[in-house]
Amino acid sequence: MSSHSPFRFGATVTHIESRATLQEQARRLEGEGWSTLLMRDHVGAPSMFAPLMSAAAATVDLRVGTLVANNGLHHPVRLAQEAATVDLLVDGRLELGLGAGWNRRESDLLGITHEASPQRVTRLHNSIATMKSAWAGDLRLPAADGTEGERAVLPGVQRPHIPLLIGGHGDAILALAAQEADIVGLNGLTVAGSTAKPTGVGYDAIADRVQFLRAHAGERMNVIELSTLALVTSIDGDTESTVRVVASGLQIAPTVVRDSPLVLVGSTSEVVDKLVAVREQLGISYIVVRDTAMHEMGPVVAELAGT
Prior knowledge:
This protein has a single domain, classed as TIM Barrel, CATH 3.20.20.30. Helix content is about 45%, strand content about 20%. The chain has helices spanning about 20-30, 50-55, 75-90, 105-110, 115-135, 170-180, 205-215, 240-250, 255-260, 270-280, 295-305; strands spanning about 10-15, 35-40, 65, 70, 95-100, 140, 150, 165-170, 185, 190, 195, 225-230, 230-235, 265, 285-290. The strands form four sheets. An eight-stranded parallel barrel has the order 1-2-3-5-8-9-12-15, surrounded by seven helices. The longest helix has 20 residues, at about 115-135. InterPro entries: Lucif-like_OxRdtase_MSMEG_2516, Luciferase-like_dom, Luciferase-like_sf, SsuD_RutA_monooxygenase. It holds the Pfam family Bac_luciferase. Keywords: Flavoprotein, FMN, Monooxygenase, Oxidoreductase.
C-alpha cells in the first residue's frame, strides 16, 4: 500500500475476566476509534474464536482477528471451517492472522512433531493454499459413488476470502507473506528453540525487512498492509528511564530503542510524530499494542486513526 494508507490500531487481549469485561473492552475500543480486537493462540491462554464472537456481538463496526493462529496446531480444513463460520457470525469482520508456529513447548505438550523452521514455513504455505481452495469451493468431499460431492467448507462473508495476516521476520516467512498475505506483521523476532528474541527491532532491521518484502511482492506491495506489534508502549511517562530499561533488557543501544518502530515511548505528540514518520518512510500503518496499553494509547488513536 502507499505510504499514506490510513492508520489503523488494534489491541491484543492478554486476559479475560468475564464476558462482561471483554464486551466492555470491545465497546471501549470501538468508541475510541480502534480498528481491531485481537486474540493470541497459545496453550494456557484463552481460545481464539469464542472471545472474538463475543466481542463482535457487543459492537457494530469493530473488527476482530487472530494474532496469530499457530498453523502447527490446526488442520487447515478445520481452521478454514472455523474461520468461515466466525466470519459469517461477525458479519464479515474477521481478520485471520497466521504464523508458522515457533513454540516447541506447545507442540511437545500436544504430542505434535515440531519441525525445523523451513518445514514449518512450507507447511504454512500448503495450509494457506488449502484454506483458499476450501473458501473458493474447490475443495470437495467425495460422494458415495466416487464422484465430486458437496464443498468441504462453506465460504465466509468477505470476498475473495477472509483477509490473511502473516507475521514474522525471517526471509522464508516474509517471502511467503509477500505472495499470500493481505496484511504483513513485522515483529522483529528471531526464534531459538522455544524462545522468540527481539533481535531485529531496530529501525534499520525493520527497514531491511520492508525492502525484502517489496522485492518479493512486486506489484502486490500496492495491496499489502504493513503492521507492527509494539514491544513496548510507554506514553507520557519517564521516557529516558524506560529507554534505559528496555535497552538493558534487549542488550541494545538506547538510540536503537528510541528509533525502533516497535517501541512507542515518549509524549503523545512524540509518538504521533514517530508513527507518521514511520508510515512515510516504511509504509507501516496498522499499529497493534497489548490491551494493557489501551489507556495510554488512547490520545494517539484519537489523533491518528483513519488519517
